[in-house]
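STRUCTURE:
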């Protein structure tokens, strides 16, 4: 049986193309500039105008507290009053302050319920200060919430689409305070690789020195390239960045196989290689069934009813999947394509790949989730 499908499998390996060309990527897509970064903002606010889908005040007392504080700031005192609305919800508001954001600019904000509200659909976020990690207010958010889903319910059934307890406000945050960072005063730029790699860093260094002059860029490690602006006599770091950010670089990458066992997903790069290996995989099924039988004595005879055990045991060994020993190295994508052609499912394929990795025949890093 093995001899029957080995030629077919080897033919699949030979017909699968191996992509050996290199992809050219812009420098701006490979690195980040040290110091040019965003800042996370968070605030605690109130969404009003909900159609009876807000927080239950008894289950979320913090909603009542913030409502009382908001009304007191507006000159309304509700202390001691039995105020139990169902059209409000306490929410956490998050946003990102982008680099070089100026006062008056707008940013998108995300709104998420923290109480037992059922939906934020149709609600309006009232003025909410957004704080950074240093405790200062950098933005203020307000506006109509675009909920991420909708829910409906009756007396005997309910249905929900998406996540109605979270939403967003496009452009709902206004910058009130700027971050003190003077980019024009920098005398040295540090480029941080998003995926550290010595070969990629060396190629970036070479591309910058070729474009603007030798000894301008220096690779410090696998993830950092330093650029001396004083050596170039550049008065504007912004102009220098605009000059180099579109340089074309061919990045290198490590061979990685990512396996998600929950969804049966396998993702791999073209650089993954597999050495000579033989695999035999089959499904061994063991089934044991208990069917006890009750036996009664004959009529008018002395005796007791007893239970007689009956056991049925069966072992089924389905035809397995085998892979011949490959001559030379093959890409893992070719192996997976061959296994797919033979009808091997994702779950069995994950087990096969893990076993081949344990045998030391796959040259790649495994990331198992």
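SEQUENCE:
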């Amino acid at each position: 049986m093995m001899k029957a499908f080995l030629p077919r499998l080897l033919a699949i390996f030979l017909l699968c193309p191996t992509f050996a060309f290199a992809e050219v990527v812009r420098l701006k897509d490979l690195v980040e500039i040290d110091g040019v970064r965003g800042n996370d903002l968070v605030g605690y606010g109130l969404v009003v105008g909900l159609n009876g889908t807000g927080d239950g005040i008894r289950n979320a007392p913090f909603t009542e507290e913030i409502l009382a504080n908001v009304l007191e700031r507006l000159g309304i005192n509700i202390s001691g009053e039995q105020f139990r609305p169902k059209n409000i919800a306490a929410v956490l508001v998050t946003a990102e302050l982008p680099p070089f954001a100026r006062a008056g600019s707008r940013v998108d904000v995300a709104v998420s319920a923290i109480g037992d509200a059922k939906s934020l659909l149709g609600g309006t976020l009232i003025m909410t200060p957004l704080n950074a990690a240093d405790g200062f207010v950098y933005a203020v958010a307000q506006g109509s919430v675009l909920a991420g889903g909708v829910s409906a319910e009756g007396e005997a059934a309910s249905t929900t689409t998406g996540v109605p307890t979270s939403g967003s406000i496009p452009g709902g945050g206004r910058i009130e305070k700027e971050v003190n960072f003077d980019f024009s005063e920098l005398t040295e730029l540090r480029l941080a690789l998003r995926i550290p790699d010595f070969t990629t860093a060396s190629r970036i260094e070479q591309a910058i020195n070729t474009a603007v002059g030798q000894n301008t860029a220096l690779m410090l490690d696998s993830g950092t390239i330093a650029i001396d602006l004083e050596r170039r006599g550049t008065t504007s770091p912004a102009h220098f960045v605009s000059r180099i950010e579109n340089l074309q670089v061919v990045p290198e990458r490590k061979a990685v196989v990512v396996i998600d066992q929950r969804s049966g997903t396998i993702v791999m790069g073209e650089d993954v290689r597999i050495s000579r290996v033989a695999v035999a995989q089959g499904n061994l099924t063991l089934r044991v069934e208990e069917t006890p039988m009750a036996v009664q004595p004959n009529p008018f005879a002395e005796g007791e009813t007893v239970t007689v055990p009956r056991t049925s045991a069966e072992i089924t060994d389905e035809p397995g999947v085998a892979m011949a020993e490959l001559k030379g190295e093959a890409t893992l994508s070719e192996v997976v394509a061959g296994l797919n052609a033979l009808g091997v499912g994702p779950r069995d394929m994950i087990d096969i790949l893990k076993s081949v990795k344990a045998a030391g025949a796959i040259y790649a890093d495994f990331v198992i989730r």
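REMARK: The chain has three domains: 2-19+256-287+317-368, 25-35+182-249, 39-175.
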